[in-house]
C-alpha cells in the first residue's frame, strides 16, 4: 500500500499540505484499498494503480468542492443558443466513464485493463 509521503513525491501538485491535508489523502488511500480489493490480484501494478486512483479521487473532489461538477468531461461541442453540449467521451463504457474525466483516472483505467483484460479470442 502506498504512503502519503510517496504519493506527494509522485504527484508534487498535491504537495501543499494546507490545500491537501494528510487526513484527506489518507481517506482517499483508504477508499482506493476498498475499490481495488486484494493487492495479489493486481500483479505488479497494485501500487502504481493505487497512486493513480488516489490522485483521481483528489482531482474529482477538488473540482466538485469548487461547485463545478459539470466540467469533468471533455466537451466536443458547445453552443450557446438552445444550449447544446456534447461530451467527447460518449462512446466510453458507461460504468467506467468517470475514470476518463481526469488524466489520473485514465492512468488507473489503463492499469485496470492491463490487469483484468481477460482472454481474447482469435
Percentage of residues in DSSP E strands: 5-15%
Shape: flat
Quaternary structure: single chain
Per DSSP E runs of 2 or more residues, the count of β-strands stands at: 2
Report the C-alpha radius of gyration, rounded.
Answer: 16 Å
Rounded average pLDDT: 82
Proportion of helical residues: 40-55%
Largest sheet: 2 strands, antiparallel
| Tally of alpha and pi helices | 4
Low-confidence segments, ≥5 residues, pLDDT <50? none
Give the termini separation: 37 Å
Order of the strands making up the biggest sheet: 1-2
Pattern of helices and strands: HHHEEH
Structural class determined from secondary elements: mainly alpha
Short description:
The chain is mainly α and 122 residues long. The chain has 4 helices and 2 strands; from the N terminus they run H-H-H-E-E-H.
Main features:
single chain, 122 residues, mainly alpha, two-stranded antiparallel sheet, 2 strands, 45% helix, flat
Fold and architecture overview:
There is one protein chain. This protein has helices spanning 4-10, 22-36, 46-65, 103-115, and strands spanning 75-79, 84-87. Strand 1 (75-79) and strand 2 (84-87) form a beta hairpin. Helices cover 45% and strands 7% of the residues. It has a domain at 4-68 and 98-115. The protein starts with a helix and ends in a 7-residue tail after the last helix. Helix 2 crosses helix 3 (46-65) and helix 3 (46-65) runs antiparallel to helix 4. The model has no long low-confidence stretch (mean pLDDT 82). With 122 residues, it is mostly helical. It has a two-stranded antiparallel ribbon with strand order 1-2.
Amino acid at each position: 500500500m502506498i504512503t502519503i509521503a510517496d504519493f506527494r513525491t509522485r504527484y508534487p501538485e498535491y504537495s501543499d499540505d494546507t490545500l491537501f491535508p494528510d487526513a484527506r489523502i489518507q481517506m482517499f488511500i483508504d477508499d482506493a484499498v476498498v475499490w481495488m480489493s486484494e493487492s495479489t490480484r493486481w500483479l505488479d501494478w497494485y501500487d502504481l494503480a493505487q497512486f493513480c486512483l488516489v490522485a483521481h479521487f483528489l482531482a474529482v473532489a477538488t473540482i466538485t468542492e469548487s461547485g463545478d461538477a459539470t466540467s469533468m468531461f471533455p466537451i466536443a461541442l458547445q453552443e450557446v443558443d438552445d444550449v447544446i453540449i456534447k461530451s467527447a467521451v460518449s462512446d466510453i463504457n458507461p460504468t467506467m466513464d468517470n475514470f476518463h474525466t481526469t488524466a489520473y483516472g485514465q492512468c488507473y483505467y489503463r492499469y485496470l485493463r492491463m490487469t483484468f483484460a481477460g482472454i481474447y479470442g482469435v
